[in-house]
Design brief:
173 residues, 5 helices, single chain, globular, secreted, mainly alpha, Glutaredoxin
């Protein structure tokens, strides 16, 4: 009988520590909600201080009317590759700064727009759309089989692609 209570005691400890961790997480998000103009959940961790659009339609509208390029990140919460890219993206100070010049959208589901999956529906993938609402099929990562995929080690390429999306814009408008 002694052994059984020992085991249940141990399980109880695990449950308690998880609950505490959850509460600690909640507190942090409360403190930062004053900053962003939209609920922080829209960032899904890709940059909590950035302003993210809620839907693809809203993102297109805002890109067109603000004359800013749109950056769309397709990812999944339970995909380790998405998580790894998100971490380096969120921690990259230059990327976070440059991202302010974009209309931003991150999606955990596919849209019905086939232009957003030029070579398939894989995650993570990052596409740029200019204010004329054209997908920039010319701004790609370094994999020929998944053109819009980036790994954490490709973060500087993603950064220069963001610069390219902004530069191309200036010369064409």
């Amino acid at each position: 009988a002694m052994e059984k209570s020992y085991v249940s005691m141990f399980l109880l400890l695990i449950v308690v520590s998880c609950a505490l961790a959850k509460d600690a997480g909640k507190k942090d998000s409360k403190d930062t909600t004053a900053k962003p103009k939209l609920p922080q959940t829209l960032s899904r961790g890709w940059g909590d201080q950035l302003i993210w659009t809620q839907t693809y339609e809203e993102a297109l509208f805002r890109a067109k009317h603000s004359q800013k390029p749109l950056m769309i990140i397709h990812h999944l919460e339970d995909c380790p590759h998405s998580q790894a890219l998100k971490k380096v993206f969120a921690e990259h100070k230059d990327i976070q700064k440059l991202a302010e010049k974009f209309i931003l959208l991150n999606l955990v589901y596919e849209t019905t727009d086939k232009n957003l999956a030029p070579d398939g529906q894989y995650v993570p993938r990052v596409l740029f759309i200019d204010p004329s609402l054209t997908v920039r099929a010319d701004i790609t990562g370094r994999y020929s089989n998944r053109l819009y995929a980036y790994e954490p080690s490709d973060i500087s390429l993603l950064y220069s692609n963001m610069q390219k999306a902004l530069k191309l814009l200036k010369t064409e408008l």
